[in-house]
What we know:
Helices cover 45% and strands 19% of the residues. It is of the alpha/beta class. It has two domains: 7-45 and 80-158, HUPs (Rossmann fold), CATH 3.40.50.620; 164-285, Rossmann fold, CATH 3.40.50. The protein has a ten-stranded mixed beta sheet with strand order 3-2-1-4-5-10-9-6-7-8, sandwiched between helices. Helix 4 runs parallel beside helix 5 and helix 8 runs parallel beside helix 10 (270-277). The longest helix is centred in the first third of the chain and has 35 residues, at 63-97. The protein is elongated, with a radius of gyration of 21 Å.
Amino acid sequence: MFNNDNKILACIDGSKYSQSVCDYAAWISQRTGAPLQLLHNLEHPVGASTADLSGAIGLGSRDTLLQELTEVEEQRNRLMMEQGKLMLAAAKERIGQGGTEASTKQRHGSLTESLIEMEDDIRVLVLGIRGEEHEQNTTHLGAHLEATIRALHRPILVVNTEFRVPEKVMLAYDGSDASSKALDMLAQSPLFKGIPVHLVTVGEDPADSNTLQHKATEVLQAAGHNVTAVTLDGKPSETLVSYQAEHDIDLTLMGAFSHTRLRELVLGSLTAKVLLKSNKPLLLLR
Length: 286
């Protein structure tokens, strides 16, 4: 699935989560030995609004006015680019202080489209739960987060708090393909080597749950993990978040959007609910 050139990609902007994104990305890079790249993406492409400006001016307007507006827009884009470069430089310096090297990259256009184009080179994507424009709106996910999670088939770490070295992780396991990928990552990746695992199944038939947990526990124990396996009842999103808080879990792994489309439309996505309710990072796999 990955080669030695696959990168830990950290998305940097002006939000309050960017420093934590840097710290978690550096931690992953150090644990896995994978190269780290910092990405700043400008949603507003250079020169993109010139056509919009000309339409707003209307017929008969002076050419000089259009020229002035175009120059203002070009200047705005240059300033945004410089601001992004300063953000990347600061992020690189922060990571370097911890002994991790990082390359930087700046792109223009839709963040999701940029990430899709870069997907083949990504090992793990790290980004904040909200960007700078929406960071105060705690009732909704970031504008591009759900689209990115649905579009990419790479592990995505969603950061929503200050960095803390993970000492306990939780796997929300239901036997689905996505949660099985999370199980494999836990067992095989050096990222989680030596970290105790809480294996949690919610809302499944007891017989099915026992079978699922027995097999998953064997896989994790064979990989050297200390495993605490529990089966819980209740609404999955609320139960998982409560268990996470009660046992001071530092990071949760779960499958992303594994329910059917109809179930999502009627009940809402379990992934989105956990993202909104949790105050610890989630590593999502599809």
